[in-house]
């Protein structure tokens, strides 16, 4: 369960909105970047490498198709996520489906999946003290036409706390420090048609350092006052 929340936070490694859509490194085809994940004891737990498969300009901004490949601490591939990101009139939007990790889908293996939700937006006028819009995605699983279960991911309480400079193996970046809460809930559909909430799913607090040039540079996931893990941008290839 801890790993699922870390992967959810890692999903924010898709590019951030800059002052103009053309400032994004990740709106260039062929760009790759790697986020390395660590546990609370600084041990590597895995990596996620994102490749920009296609990028194009639109009448009001830009669009890019991404492929994220996740690997465990031994370098074994554990899953692939495909998503699309857009920049429209200066507002950068992430499809919330990208926050459904391969590990979450594993629980609904060989089932039909349907997604509902809204995009997670980053406004071009981001400033310290600003509250950012929430995001939500609902994954509904069915088997042989019958509803089986639902998983809901809520990203909420997003606030821009500060501006800081962060240095990693990929370079030095001017970042906005953003805090938010990840709430993950799973329900099983009962034969009677009711829902039974699955136990053991507690909200996590996340702090991320977000660059207008490359996106997420670093993020930390907390359960109360205990840091469960963190991710760092360790490679960027243009």
Chart the SSEs and their pairings:
Layout: H1 2-10, E1 32-39, E2 44-58, E3 61-72, E4 77-88, E5 91-95, H2 102-106, E6 112-117, E7 119-122, E8 135-143, E9 146-168, E10 171-189, E11 195-197, E12 204-211, E13 215-223, E14 226-237
Antiparallel strand pairs: 1-2, 1-14, 2-3, 3-4, 4-5, 5-7, 6-8, 8-9, 9-10, 10-11, 10-12, 12-13, 13-14
- β-strand amount: over 45%
Cα end-to-end separation: 34 Å
By helix and strand content, what is the structural category?
mainly beta
Rg (C-alpha, Å):
18 Å
CATH topology: YmcC-like fold
Q: Count of helices?
A: 2
* CATH class descriptor: Mainly Beta
User: Helix content range of the residues, please?
Assistant: under 10%
| Bulk shape | globular
| Mean pLDDT level | 84
Helices and strands, in order, run as: HEEEEEHEEEEEEEEE
- By DSSP, the count of extended strands is 14
Task: State the low-pLDDT regions, or none.
Answer: 12-19
The CATH architecture comes to Beta Barrel
Main sheet specs: 14 strands, antiparallel
Could you say how many structural domains there are in total?
1
Task: List the keywords.
14-stranded antiparallel beta sheet, 238 residues, mainly beta
Word description of this protein:
- It is a single chain.
- This protein is mainly beta.
- The protein has a single domain (2-237), classed as YmcC-like fold (Beta Barrel), CATH 2.40.360.20.
- Helices cover 6% and strands 61% of the residues.
- It contains 2 helices and 14 strands; from the N terminus they run αβββββαβββββββββ.
- The chain has helices at 2-10, 102-106, and strands at 32-39, 44-58, 61-72, 77-88, 91-95, 112-117, 119-122, 135-143, 146-168, 171-189, 195-197, 204-211, 215-223, 226-237.
- Strands 1, 2, 3, 4, 5, 6, 7, 8, 9, 10, 11, 12, 13 and 14 form a 14-stranded antiparallel beta sheet that branches.
- It is globular, with a radius of gyration of 18 Å.
- The two termini are 34 Å apart.
């Amino acid at each position: 369960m801890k790993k699922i929340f870390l992967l959810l936070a890692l999903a924010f490694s898709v590019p951030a909105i800059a002052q103009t859509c053309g400032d994004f490194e990740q709106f260039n085809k062929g760009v790759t970047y790697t986020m390395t994940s660590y546990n609370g004891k600084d041990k590597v737990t895995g990596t996620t490498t994102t490749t920009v498969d296609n990028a194009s300009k639109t009448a009001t901004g830009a669009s890019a198709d991404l492929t994220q490949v996740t690997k465990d601490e031994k370098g074994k591939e554990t899953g692939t996520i495909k998503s699309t990101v857009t920049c429209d009139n200066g507002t950068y939007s992430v499809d919330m489906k990208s926050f459904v990790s391969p590990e979450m889908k594993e629980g609904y293996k060989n089932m039909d999946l349907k997604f509902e939700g809204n995009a997670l937006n980053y406004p071009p006028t981001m400033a310290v003290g600003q509250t950012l819009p929430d995001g939500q995605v609902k994954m509904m699983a069915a088997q042989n036409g019958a509803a089986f279960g639902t998983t809901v991911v809520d990203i909420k309480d997003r606030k821009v706390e500060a501006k800081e400079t962060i240095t990693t193996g990929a370079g030095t970046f001017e970042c906005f420090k953003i805090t938010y809460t990840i709430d993950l809930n799973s329900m099983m559909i009962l034969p009677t048609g009711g829902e039974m909430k699955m136990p053991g799913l507690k909200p996590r607090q996340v702090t991320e350092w977000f660059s207008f040039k490359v996106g997420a540079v670093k993020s930390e996931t907390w359960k109360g006052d205990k840091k469960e893990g963190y991710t760092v941008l360790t490679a960027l290839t243009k």
